[in-house]
Write a structure and sequence with these properties.
By secondary structure, the chain is mainly alpha-helical. A hairpin with a 5-residue loop joins strand 1 and strand 2. The longest helix is centred in the middle third of the chain and has 32 residues.
Length: 155
């Protein structure tokens, strides 16, 4: 229920308040929740990826996580900027950008997407931006010309 989710979030904020720099430790939210808030509820989560990260890794880890997220968003934004609206590479990057934003919104209310999948998604997003940007040359007029990637056959 909404009340339970709010309570989990408040518990995460309390953990952050009690351990502001380093948090309660990675994957320790559940055990701390059980020890300090409700001994009858093992396996509890904050139901928010961002709150979980701040509660478990403190301000240091939380700020690094948010910064990383913003770097990925910025990388996707700058790579797609300047590509034509209907350019397949631009469409791909805009789709990945939209998915990354959607994943961030999902993480506000759900915890499990912040685990391994999110980091793999970040790597995929940045790699896609690097490959697409590396295969395109922007001339001075702002138009793009595709070039062969290093190692491609020119025959």
């Amino acid at each position: 229920s909404v009340v339970e989710h709010a309570y989990y979030g408040l518990a995460a904020l309390e953990m952050l308040r009690n351990h502001p720099l380093t948090g309660v430790g990675i994957h320790n939210y559940s055990s701390v929740y059980q020890a300090q808030f409700n001994p009858n509820l093992p396996g509890a989560t904050a139901h928010s990826g961002f709150l979980s990260i701040f509660a478990e890794m403190g301000l240091i880890g939380g700020v690094i996580f948010v910064f990383t997220y913003l770097v990925v968003l910025h990388r996707l934004w700058t790579a797609q900027r300047g590509l034509a609206v209907h350019d397949p590479d631009g469409l791909l990057l805009r789709g990945i950008l939209a998915a990354t934003v959607g994943l961030g919104v999902c993480n506000l209310f759900y915890h499990f997407w912040t685990q391994l999948f999110l980091w793999c998604f970040f790597a995929f997003a940045v790699a896609a931006a690097n490959v697409i940007e590396g295969s395109t040359v922007r001339n001075l007029s702002g138009k793009t010309d595709n070039i062969a990637l290093q190692g491609d056959d020119e025959s």
